Give the backbone structure.
Amino acid sequence: MRRVSGIFDISYVQDITIFRTKYYAAGMILLILFFLILPVFGANDFWLAFITTTAITVIALQGLNILAGYCGQISVGHTAFMAVGAYTSTILAAQFGLSLWICMPIGGLGAALIGLLFGLPSLRVKGYYLALTTIAAQYLIIYMIKTPFPEVTGGAIALKVPELKLGSFVFQEEIHFYYFVMIMLIIMTFLAKSLMRSHFGRTFVAIRDNDIASEAMGISLYKYKLLAFFIGCFYAGIAGSIWAAYARVISPDDFTLSQSIWYLGMLIIGGVGSTLGPFFGAIFIGVLREICVVAGPVVSSLIPQIGAQISASLVEMTFGIVIILFLVFEPRGISHRWEILKESYRLWPFSY
Amino acid sequence: MITFFQLLISGLSVGFIYGLIAVGFVLIFKSSQIFNFAQGEMVMFGAFLVWSFLNMGIPPVLALIIVVVLVGLAGYGLERFPLRAMIGQPIMATIMITMGIAVFLKGLALLIWSNNIGIQYPAIVTEKTVSIMGIPISNVTMGIFLFGLILVILLSLFFNYSRTGLHMRAAAESHQLAQSMGIKVTQAIAQSWAIAAIVATVGGFLLGYIRGIDIGLIEIGLIAIAAALVGGLESFKGAVLGGLIMGVAQTFTGGYIGYGLKEVVPFLIMVLVLIFKPYGLFGLVKIERV
């Protein structure tokens, strides 16, 4: 990776810094400011809702990125862990009257603990086998929500979530959640970025690149693989409980296997193993999905004899094609393209 | 006791189809080391395709032959794009490419057939019940059994004795090594995808004949993957045995415990097997070196 000319790292602290130059920091502050004042410029509820859901997705994706992107432990059951977080926080809040603010971190911890349980096979198997274990996690967790304790979890029917309150202030409108989710997004992204700059992040990358070699170098796979599961699923749990507070109703059908596959796809499209990747992936797929939903009725009015679920099928088909195209032509995702773009900007007018 | 045997028989017959689909899955894994998560979608798509041809009034045998040729060609084409680009890519990419195919197939099926809900094949044979040692067995079940058995034996012979089958196994061992011995790796992979697609379609047809055709057939494919894993990924007999275990486990939990658990019990078995015996019943234990 090419860096800004004339800026050299002469100490380790400099090497791991987030903002290498003051322009980086200024740009980041401007970007955050832009999103904070966006509602003031009359962005309507549709866009606020779109940004909010995308931001929740990004939080979940950051966790998946730590788990699958940095540590290489592919999880195809990420939404199931979101479901654990959502249900834990909702049940605690609804049945025990705890404040949602306390329930959210507990929901994250609950998801993380369940994640540890399903991370256990990762000590013996990896790659495909692990992916299958996480698929099993998806089915088993949703089963546990649906069937054995319907009086607690609401079974297959939707569960109502208590209101999110801050003192006497009740989070009701889109704009309230917008600010709440944005702040959470900034915190969680900063944590993820910091974690990956630290000793943990480099250990995870070592495990991803070759776990046996890293074990031979003294890294405890037992500890770090489980830690990756813990952190990744904690993110999922947090995202799930935020989603629950935002959506106000949760049901097991919100957390399906295909949703988990979408998350992995977003990660691939955005760029695996980069903090920016989840942002690009979630935004790209979010926009694509909206386009398909709009295009569905148009297509079905042109060709009336095709099936009733035209929007759903269009969304799935484009998503499949986009994943395949990205994997074949740009496996490093949009964030790699972004790096190239930055590089050619720096080298301009002599970029190559 | 009679219910026990009835459950056993129906479990074995469903399990045999799981086994068949698992065989297709093992086939792809053996020849290309790609884990085909689209197996369930291929099963579902094949079942719908057969139904469409039958619906046009084409006689069953001819329809089946047409569909087998079509999906065989499609499987062959899949190798050219996108799977050829996946040779030597990391595992995450190969997982996601088959998932991409899976999502696409599901979308395509929704696009074409989402108006056809609750469809079934027209009865091809008249169902009769034969009694063997006091246990009633339908001739459809027996037919599926025989059909599957023949298919598995043929595939085993093919992989152990035919030149093409040996080429595929060599390609599975190491792409580079196989190429240096003059084996066309791309061709071997294409052939195995074609065969796997055909096996999936046949499995989808048989399953659809028993339980009707719908999008839910996808889940069956996932159960078949679990079955393949339980049996060990390198072994055909393991795949069939794994399928039988899954089928019997499902009908027994469905019959004695409850319907909800029936759907997830294969995955429960799979997780337990993965924890305690990661390479399955007949799988090859891999020794890794840095």
